[in-house]
Amino acid sequence: MRTIIRNQRGAALVEFAIVVLLLFTLLFGIIEFGLIIKDYLTVSQAAREGARCASLRGDINAVTERVRNSAPGFSQDQIDAMTVAAWYRVQAPNGNWGNWTSGLPAAGDASIEGKEVQLRVKVTYPHPTITGSFFGLGSTIMLSGNMVWRREGMPPPAT
Questions:
Q1: CB–CB of 144/123 below 8 Å?
Q2: Furthest-apart CA atoms within the chain: distance in Å
Q3: Distances (CA, A) of 114 to 1, 51, 103, 117, 156
Q4: What is the pLDDT of residues 118-142, one digit of tens each?
């Protein structure tokens, strides 16, 4: 009888080890996924704010500053790790869109006056994972937020 009880204790210990391993894997997976989603939403919101700033005739420095100020949950190191890129394209008279051009159009650019202009802002952030490459994600995951916004109309020229 004592041998049977000892064997059952060993089996319970092995079962406990397997269950704890699965439990911790699930727990850390949920935590990692939650942190990735949180940072993705912050990066997407920052891209949205940057595109809005660009649509109001902001230059690339103003857009970058707006993006960096629109990440309230990020530390200064995380904000410094973000990169901001901007492009624009102009609609041709036939209704087709031109190619994306890097940067933002100058404030007094006569070639785009009276034309429909789209602006695209992309924010990228290297999210460090807390579990390393345990889930096969690698030690960092590149998160990016893209936002395309229509440029606001030009104010009438001062006379």
A1: yes
A2: 104
A3: 93, 20, 19, 9, 11
A4: 999 999 999 998 877 776 667 889 9
Written as six digits, the tokens of 103 are 């940067």
Higher pLDDT, residue 153 or 62 = 62
CA distance 9 to 7: 5
Is 33:129 a contact under the CB 8 Å cutoff? Answer: no
Cα(58)–Cα(103) distance, rounded to whole angstroms? 11
Contacts 24+ apart (CB under 8 A), 155-158: none
Compute the distance between CA of residue 88 and CA of residue 57 in angstroms, rounded to an integer.
Answer: 12
Distance (Å, whole) CA 51 – CA 39: 18
Phi and psi angles of residue 137, each rounded to the nearest 5 degrees, phi first = -90, -15
Give me the sign of the Cα torsion angle 28, 30, 35, 36. Answer: positive
Element (H, E) at 129: none
